Amino acid sequence: VLPGDCWAFKGHQGQVVIRLPTRVHLTAITVQHIAKEASPSGTVISAPKDIAVFVSLLGSSVDADREEETLLGMFTYDTEQDPIQTFPLKDMLLPRAFSHVKLLVKSNWGNPWYTCIYQVQVHGKMETQKASTKGQD
């Protein structure tokens, strides 16, 4: 992770919808920014602060005409902690797998011009196939 080599968006708010390669029962999300020591300015005011995570039925055959979202968690990325932070999600409220995750950044740590996210990781268990896969890798 190098300073400036990030997904940046204008202002202090933004969002990204991540399409997962398969449907997943979500358990946590990890967000990464650079450490203060790696920053040329010595600050990380472009780091996200308040973040909300939603799952989306976008593109599902259940309801293709509208997009439904369910909040799985709200958390604060703490610039005084490790630059890689993992947050548990409330998957137990939704006993199903999803193929889209929305990360909504509501604020950053003070940069009025842009916000940077260096890496997002989605954690969970892939939805099991209904057909038997016994004997297959």
From TrEMBL:
<keyword id="KW-0812">Transmembrane</keyword>
<dbReference type="GO" id="GO:0043495">
    <property type="term" value="F:protein-membrane adaptor activity"/>
</dbReference>
<dbReference type="InterPro" id="IPR012919">
    <property type="entry name" value="SUN_dom"/>
</dbReference>
<dbReference type="GO" id="GO:0005637">
    <property type="term" value="C:nuclear inner membrane"/>
</dbReference>
<dbReference type="InterPro" id="IPR045119">
    <property type="entry name" value="SUN1-5"/>
</dbReference>
<keyword id="KW-0472">Membrane</keyword>
<dbReference type="InterPro" id="IPR008979">
    <property type="entry name" value="Galactose-bd-like_sf"/>
</dbReference>
<dbReference type="Pfam" id="PF07738">
    <property type="entry name" value="Sad1_UNC"/>
</dbReference>
<dbReference type="GO" id="GO:0034993">
    <property type="term" value="C:meiotic nuclear membrane microtubule tethering complex"/>
</dbReference>
<feature type="domain" description="SUN">
    <location>
        <begin position="1"/>
        <end position="127"/>
    </location>
</feature>
<protein>
    <submittedName>
        <fullName>SPAG4 protein</fullName>
    </submittedName>
</protein>
<keyword id="KW-1133">Transmembrane helix</keyword>
